[in-house]
Amino acid sequence: MAGPIPELEECATRCARRLAEADRVLLASHIDADGLTSAAIATQALERARIPFETVFEKQLDADAIAAIAATEYDTVLFTDFGSGQLDIISEYEADNAFTPVIADHHQPATIDDDGESVRVDTDYHLNPLLFGINGASELSGAGASYVLARALAAVADLPPDESIATDGGTTTAARADNRDLAALAVVGAVGDMQASGGELHGANAKIVAEGVDAGVLETGKDLALYGKQTRPLPKLLEYATDVHIPGISNDQNGALRFLDGLDLELKRDGEWRRWASLTNDEKQTVASALVRRAVSSGVPATKIDGLVSTAYVLPDEPVGTELRDASEFSTLLNATARYERADVGLGVCLGDRGEALERARKLLRDHRRNLSEGIDLVTQEGVTHEDHLQWFHAGDRIRETIVGIVAGMAMGNQGISRSKPIIAFADKDDEHVKVSARGTHSLVRNGLDLSVVVGEASRAVGGDGGGHDVAAGATVPKGDEDAFLERANAIVGEQLS
Ligand code: C5P
Ligand code: C5P
Ligand code: ZN
C-alpha cells in the first residue's frame, strides 16, 4: 500500500467506507496541477466504485465557496487538495448537518483559538499526511492523499467484476481493479507541487512511485534534469535550462547552438532539431558528458553539477515527444488549464481525452509559457524590495493572481532576487482584495521558516486569511493593507529564522 504508516491507511479506509455509503458525492477540488490530478484520481475511483458524483473546482476554498457547496443537495462532499485549511468553517456546516465532509488534503489544518491556545480542528473523515507525521510539502501531495483514498476505496467497495475492466488483460486489469494504475496521476500531482526536492520524490511519494512502476504505468531513471526533454528542440532545451547555469549555454541562444554543432552527432532530422527524448542512450550520454565537461571547465561548482542529473518520471503509455509522457511537462500543461479557468480541459486530459481537450490544453500552454516568461522578466527587471528578513514585489494587475506565486518561485535566484530570504508577491485580485503568494527554499525551511504560519498570521492580522505549506503559502488581504501585512510577516520570519 501507499502509506508507510498504518494509521494513514486506517484513516483512508474509514473515509472510503463513508464514501461507499453515500448515495452520491459532490467532489470539490483545487485549480492547479495537484488539484486536477487529485480530482482525476477521485473521479475514477468513485466511478469504478459505482458511486454517483459531480465535480466542481474552486480557485480558493473560502467562506463563500463553502457556503455555495453547502447550498447544494449533496449530503456528502469529498474535498481534494484543499479542505484541511478551512476545517474551521467546514466543521460548522458539519455540525449543522449541512453535509458530511470527507477530506483528502496535504495543507496545514486550520486551528482555532481555545482559551488562548491554538488547537487543530478535526473531523472524522480527514485524510492528511500531516496528521500522521508525514511531511505534506515534500512527502505526499493532494493527489497522493487522493491516491491513498482511491486504493482504500477499491478495497472496501467490494465490487462485482466490471466487464470494462476485465477485458483489458494482463497487469492492467489487476492494476485497474485495485486503482494502482492511478499512481501515475499521483506522481504528476506531486511533481506539480514541486515535491521532487533534490531531484527525486521521497517518503510516501516514493512508495506511490514503486506501485506505479509495478503496475506498469510509470518508469523512472536518472536523466538530465532539464525541463522539456519530451517537447523542446535541443537548442531550446539547453538555452532555457537555467536551474544550473552553464556559462555560454544557459540563456544564450547562439551559445547553445554552437555547443550542439560542436558535437559529432546527427542532431537534426529533415532540417529540424531533434528532441532529447528521441535520442538514443549513446547520443544522450555524449551530450550529457559534453555538458558536464563544459560546466566543469567554466568553473561551475561540483555540487551544482550534481544537480544536472535527476530522476525522471515517465508515463510509458503516452507517446514519445508529448508533454504527457513526462510528469513535469504534464503538470505544467495542467497548470496552463486550471489556472486560466479551464479546469474542465485539464481534467479531460487527465481522464484520457487526447482529442479536443489535449489540443485546447496545448494552446493554453503556449499562453501560460509566455505569461510566465513575461512575469519573470518583469520581476527581474524591476527588482524586488529587500526588507531585513524578506523580499517582495507588487505586480498590481500585470501578473495574473493565479500564477504570481509560480513566477515568484521561478524568479528566485535571478539577478537581485535572493535565495536566502523568502519572497512575497502581491497581485490584484479584485477591487477590494490583493492576492499574496509566498515562496521559500528547502534550506530556509530547515532553518525554521514556516510560510504557512507567516502568511496565515500576517494575513489574519490585517483581516485577510491564508495558509498553505512551510515552503510555499498564499493568502488574500484587503487592498491597501500590504504594508501592514509586510511589517508583520517580516517580524515573524525574523523570529522563525533567529
Ligand atoms: O495548493 P498546493 O498545495 O497544491 O500548491 C503548492 C504550491 O507550492 C505549488 O504552487 C508549488 O509550486 C509550490 N511549491 C514551491 N516550492 C516547493 C514546494 C511547493 O513553490 N518546494
Ligand atoms: O496561490 P499560491 O500558489 O501562492 O499558493 C501557495 C500555497 O498556499 C498553495 O498550497 C495554496 O493552496 C495555499 N494557499 C492557501 N490559502 C490561500 C492561498 C493559497 O492555503 N488563501
Ligand atoms: Zn497540492
TrEMBL record:
<dbReference type="InterPro" id="IPR003156">
    <property type="entry name" value="DHHA1_dom"/>
</dbReference>
<dbReference type="InterPro" id="IPR038763">
    <property type="entry name" value="DHH_sf"/>
</dbReference>
<dbReference type="InterPro" id="IPR051673">
    <property type="entry name" value="SSDNA_exonuclease_RecJ"/>
</dbReference>
<dbReference type="Pfam" id="PF02272">
    <property type="entry name" value="DHHA1"/>
</dbReference>
<feature type="domain" description="DHHA1">
    <location>
        <begin position="398"/>
        <end position="494"/>
    </location>
</feature>
<protein>
    <submittedName>
        <fullName>Phosphoesterase RecJ domain-containing protein</fullName>
    </submittedName>
</protein>
<dbReference type="InterPro" id="IPR048515">
    <property type="entry name" value="DHH_CID"/>
</dbReference>
<dbReference type="GO" id="GO:0003676">
    <property type="term" value="F:nucleic acid binding"/>
</dbReference>
<dbReference type="Pfam" id="PF21763">
    <property type="entry name" value="DHH_CID"/>
</dbReference>
<feature type="domain" description="DHH-CID">
    <location>
        <begin position="226"/>
        <end position="309"/>
    </location>
</feature>
